[in-house]
């Protein structure tokens, strides 16, 4: 009995009209979901490929292939809904501990898929998505790395959406890298300030104005006040200056002062480590350019983060643990996640009236 | 749109044979068929001289949009009905299980509940929340009461370490009061012969400062952490490391995952085995990121209350979860 039902179901669903109807329904649901707030950045921990393969009596590698198909489906849904960034956990550094042939299979999978992506590059172009590889590059084999770089270069020009592939990645390694490069940054002298207004030019302008056109520029204050201003500036950029010794110079002699100051500008001064803030480290995190993580989804019922996006998701990200295995994950599961997320968003907006006005406005604009 | 079944079958067969079955052109045709149309989305190709057609398209788009808005409203209508009934159902069933599993303030009952479990966490962690809109004093009393309860259950279950995350850090400021409350609760449960307790917190002296000799009833370490011990602690560590390397004491190459891990787990918080949330959904609200790597996160869906049954279910869930560590 159950067999005939499932056979009938398959017959209907796999026939062209059935397929057409299912696709129309998908389009309708995605279009409808788009009317509400949409998370800007979604992370997926694609867990359960191997259990799926085991339950279907397949090779492990084939389970991973099915997982990739699921990823393609989900990516499509995300980009159609308007998600800007999708981050997926493709390969953990810990995964190198798996049986060798499986690691080999995964590498091969990544290589083939990315190769197909570069040959038929318009797949991602249609969504305006660019690929980025996050992780410890030095652990990737050369041939795979080459294909990856090609895929990244091929899709670089797309700017509507981003696909972050975490390949060999762990969050702790990411944080370690971020800390290390922050320390590195603070080891090099302060780079010249990135403004088109050079302080030395301004100073020279003022000095030359004082020298030849005092009456033309009445706004420039007279000498004593001017000196005071200079001293203030000296303290400002001179608290970390080294041996230039502008402080030891007797005051009131403009020319050596100018020399010493321009000297201190070119010299090496180390930035103060107390200036390191959360934002400094954030800039060195792999996802620095992406919007904050709104939604984190892990499949297969495991309720752990397993070293993925720790830095990004420990604040106010909504974390969802789903029971189903990743290759089975589709719109029918994801829609519940999105609906609940939208519902919570509405709920929290209701608590903060100011936020609600924003969404109502956005909604009316959409309509 | 997703691939149709014919194409999927062909593609999978091709894949199995290592991409030797289909020719390039065939494979490309499969991809083409499943791609969205190029002007999918907001970009409408303007064809000159087709103003009439465009206006019809506009009407169609408008109708389509209206349908979407309608379906959206319908979906959310159904969804809020679903979620309301789910919340009610969960609320009722949690109420029932909190009656069924009650500790009666007796360590023996708790021990009996725990006895069947194959493994227990060595380090349990919990997130407790302040309710901002209540009076601060009441809120602190409630927090301390909850901390004391939780600590006592841990002592009964013979879990040696409990860490409590409270975002604002108000618990950390009242360490002696927390200590008093927990000891009082211990006495209430165990009588005179209760386990020893030490209250610790990062960057603060342990309480009590001088450890009494460990009683034969075990020992519980209660560790209090706050938002400051999350990202901020990593920033602090980075500052220290930057300072040291500026002085030439270390080189950036020496900064390894092991070093950071050692510093953070000794200085702030060792990695917990199980994290219990008493919120309706999983949201970490600033819990230290470095340490939750492999922590089992337990959250009862739609649960809003603090209770023994949440603690018990978390422990049961933990015992049944398996660890694979990437294998």
From TrEMBL, chain A:
It comes from Trichoderma asperellum (strain ATCC 204424 / CBS 433.97 / NBRC 101777). Residues 213-276 are annotated as: Disordered. One of its GO terms (cellular component) is endoplasmic reticulum. NCBIfam families: uppS (TIGR00055). Pfam families: Prenyltransf. Residues 261-276 have a biased composition (Polar residues). This is Alkyl transferase. Coiled coil: none annotated. Its EC number is 2.5.1.-.
Automatic annotation (TrEMBL), chain B:
The lineage of its organism: Eukaryota, Fungi, Dikarya, Ascomycota, Pezizomycotina. Belongs to the UPP synthase family. It comes from Trichoderma asperellum (strain ATCC 204424 / CBS 433.97 / NBRC 101777). Its cofactor is Mg(2+). It catalyses: n isopentenyl diphosphate + (2E,6E)-farnesyl diphosphate = a di-trans,poly-cis-polyprenyl diphosphate + n diphosphate. Pfam families: Prenyltransf (PF01255). The keyword Endoplasmic reticulum applies. Keywords: Endoplasmic reticulum, Magnesium, Membrane, Transferase, Transmembrane, Transmembrane helix. This is ditrans,polycis-polyprenyl diphosphate synthase [(2E,6E)-farnesyldiphosphate specific]. Signal peptide: none annotated. PANTHER family: DEHYDRODOLICHYL DIPHOSPHATE SYNTHASE COMPLEX SUBUNIT NUS1.
């Amino acid at each position: 009995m159950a067999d005939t039902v499932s056979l009938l179901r398959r017959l209907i669903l796999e026939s062209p009209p059935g397929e057409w109807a299912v696709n129309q329904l998908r389009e309708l649901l995605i279009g409808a979901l788009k009317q509400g707030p949409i998370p800007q950045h979604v992370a997926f921990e694609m867990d359960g490929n191997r259990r799926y393969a085991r339950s279907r009596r397949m090779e492990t590698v084939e389970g991973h292939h099915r997982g990739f198909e699921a990823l393609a489906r989900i990516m499509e849904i995300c980009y159609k809904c308007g998600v800007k960034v999708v981050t997926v956990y493709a390969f953990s550094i810990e995964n190198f501990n798996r049986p060798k042939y499986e690691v080999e299979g995964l590498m091969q999978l990544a290589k083939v898929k990315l190769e197909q992506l570069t040959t038929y590059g318009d797949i991602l172009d249609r969504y305006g998505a660019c690929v980025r590889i996050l992780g410890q590059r030095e652990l990737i084999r050369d041939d795979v790395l080459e294909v990856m770089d090609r895929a990244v270069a091929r899709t670089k020009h797309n700017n509507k959406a981003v696909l972050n592939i975490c390949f060999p990645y762990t969050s702790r390694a990411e944080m370690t890298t971020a800390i290390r490069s922050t320390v590195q940054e603070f080891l090099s002298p302060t780079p010249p300030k990135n403004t088109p207004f050079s302080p030395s030019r301004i100073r020279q302008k003022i000095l030359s104005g004082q020298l030849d056109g005092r009456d033309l520029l009445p706004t420039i204050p007279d000498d004593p006040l001017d000196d005071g201003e200079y001293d203030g500036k000296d303290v400002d950029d001179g608290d970390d200056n080294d041996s230039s010794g502008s402080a030891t110079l007797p005051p009131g002699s403009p020319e050596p002062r100018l020399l010493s100051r321009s000297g201190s500008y070119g010299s090496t001064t180390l930035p103060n480590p107390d200036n390191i803030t959360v934002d400094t480290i954030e800039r060195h995190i792999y996802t620095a350019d992406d919007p904050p993580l709104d939604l984190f989804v892990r499949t297969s019922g495991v309720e752990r983060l397993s070293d993925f996006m720790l830095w990004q998701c420990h604040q106010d990200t909504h974390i969802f643990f789903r029971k189903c295995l990743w290759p089975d994950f589709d719109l029918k599961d994801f829609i519940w996640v999105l609906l609940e997320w939208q519902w919570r968003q509405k709920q929290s907006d209701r608590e903060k009236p100011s936020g609600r006005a924003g969404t109502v406005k956005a909604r009316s604009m959409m309509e | 749109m997703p691939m149709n079944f014919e194409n999927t079958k062909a593609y999978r067969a091709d894949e199995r044979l290592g991409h030797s079955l289909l020719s390039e052109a065939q494979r490309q045709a499969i991809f083409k068929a499943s791609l969205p149309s190029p002007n999918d989305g907001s970009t409408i190709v303007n064809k000159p001289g087709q103003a009439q057609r465009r206006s019809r398209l506009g009407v169609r788009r408008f109708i389509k949009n209206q349908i979407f808005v309608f379906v959206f409203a319908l979906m959310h209508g159904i969804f809020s009905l679903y979620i309301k009934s789910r919340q009610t159902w969960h609320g009722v069933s949690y109420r029932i299980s909190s009656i069924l599993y009650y500790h009666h303030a007796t360590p023996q009952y708790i021990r009996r509940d725990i006895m069947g479990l194959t493994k227990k966490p060595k380090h349990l962690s919990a997130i407790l929340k302040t309710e901002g809109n209540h009076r601060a004093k009441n809120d602190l009393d409630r927090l301390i009461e909850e901390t004391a309860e939780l600590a006592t259950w841990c002592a009964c279950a013979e879990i040696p370490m409990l860490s409590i995350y409270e975002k604002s850090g108000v618990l950390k400021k009242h360490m002696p009061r927390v200590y008093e409350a927990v000891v009082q609760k211990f006495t209430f449960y165990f009588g005179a012969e209760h386990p020893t307790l030490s209250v610790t917190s990062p960057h603060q002296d342990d309480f009590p400062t001088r450890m009494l000799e460990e009683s034969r009833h075990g020992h519980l370490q209660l560790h209090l952490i706050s938002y400051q011990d999350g990202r901020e602690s990593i920033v602090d560590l980075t500052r220290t490391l930057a300072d040291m390397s500026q002085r030439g004491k270390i080189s950036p190459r020496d900064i390894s995952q092991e070093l950071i891990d050692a510093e953070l787990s000794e200085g702030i918080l060792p990695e917990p085995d199980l994290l219990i949330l008493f919120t309706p959904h999983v949201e970490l609200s600033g819990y230290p990121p470095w340490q939750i790597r492999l922590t089992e996160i337990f959250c009862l869906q739609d649960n809003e209350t603090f209770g023994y049954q949440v603690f018990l279910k978390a422990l049961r869930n933990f015992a049944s979860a398996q660890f694979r560590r990437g294998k």
